[in-house]
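Supplementary Methods S3. Input chains for the assembly prediction are listed below.
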Amino acid sequence: MSAVPTYETVKIERDGATTFCILNRPEKRNAMSPQLHLDMCEALDWAAEDDETRVVVVTGAGGHFCAGQDLKLFFRANENDPKAFRKTSIASQAWRWDKLSRHPKPTIAMVHGYCFGGGFTPVIACDFAIAADDATFGLSEVNWGIIPGGLVAWAVTQIMNYRDAIYYSVTGERFSGKEAAAMKFVNKSVPVAELRDAVMSLARNLEAKNPLTVQFTKEAIRSVRGFNEDQALDYLDAKINALKHVDPDKGGDKAMKQFLDEKSFKPGLGEYKRT
Ligand code: ACO
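Predicted structure tokens for the full assembly:
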């Protein structure tokens, strides 16, 4: 395994082919400072290119996910410096949405402890989210007199049903990991002691699959949401051919041979043997 990069506010750890990008300001409940935004931009770019990384997990150090934007360093420090605020906002937006939601590797948000405000965006941008039963989620913006900006309001409506989105945004009421799982804001919740195992079980499943197929599938699912039927048909045809073009196993050809000719595996029950 090659060495991982180090950052001031983000810790990188490997567990097999899974890479953890850990928000690392535990003394501030991982509130997002300008430096953390810059570090996460670099960390996600690095993980995208790292050949040993098959799966990316985003989580927080010290038993909490993220206490939202750092009110002191993100907002107050830049109150009179719109240029600096704009630069930081771009980095904040870049990693929490653009880089995560378009990451070439499958991404899992592992949520424990607190997750507030701007901390919702990376949870939603990840392909998967698993929470501790007792995690605490809150759209707390309303509690201090602002609206869920920085795409939070838009992001919650991508994943929550409309009633829940309005309810939790306007009331600021907190909800637990268990409640988040019930409303499908996260895929599932487990007791906190089992959180890492649950995340790693999903990660190992993803690690074992053809990485190009995983990447193309997540890109397809993300893209077709905005398409009509004709657009989706055309796009998916083109995408299937694009996968055949780049995949050494020719997008299913090798697996089909193993099933039909060699009778060596059953696609309904598990993986084919990759090149
Ligand atoms: N911005 C800046 N500092 C923060 C933040 C934050 N968002 N959250 C926590 N901290 C700091 C605290 O000021 C404190 O610093 P100090 O030790 O120097 O005094 C330290 O982190 C620990 O926080 P406590 O409040 O002492 O910890 P506690 O566990 O009691 O409470 C909690 C944690 C509930 C997260 C509380 O700190 C809090 O309400 N934070 C703000 C949450 C929030 O609403 N975030 C903004 C959402 S809106 C947005 O992101 C745009």
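The chain has eleven helices and nine strands. The chain has a mean pLDDT of 97.
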